[in-house]
Amino acid sequence: MSADETGEEFTPAELRLAEHLELLRASPPGTTPQLVPRVIRGVRWQRAVRDPLLLVGAVAAALLEGLGVVVQPPAGKS
Fold first, then answer.
1. Assigned domain for 35 exists
2. pLDDT in tens, the chain (78 residues)
3. Structural domains in the chain (count)
4. Domain limits at 68?
5. Does residue 69 belong to any structural domain of this protein?
6. 3-state percent breakdown (helix, strand, coil) of the chain, nearest 5
7. 35 and 52 part of one domain
8. Whole-prediction pTM value?
């Protein structure tokens, strides 16, 4: 939303951001033909690795929780 729609003034940070966005709008960065294939390769690689990493994280969390239960003194004794 802009300040006109809400009736509120922009903060100094919002004004600086608006200036930066206006510069980008005036001269958008160019792309190279290799950009799209590179992004697609990155997405495919991340998708392939995501599930095994989640499994490793879950196993590590379970091991640490189990170790915490084993090492922790009984609740009744101090």
1. yes
2. 455 566 688 899 999 999 999 988 998 878 888 988 999 999 999 999 999 999 999 999 999 999 999 998 877 765
3. 2
4. 31-73
5. yes
6. 70, 0, 30
7. yes
8. 0.48
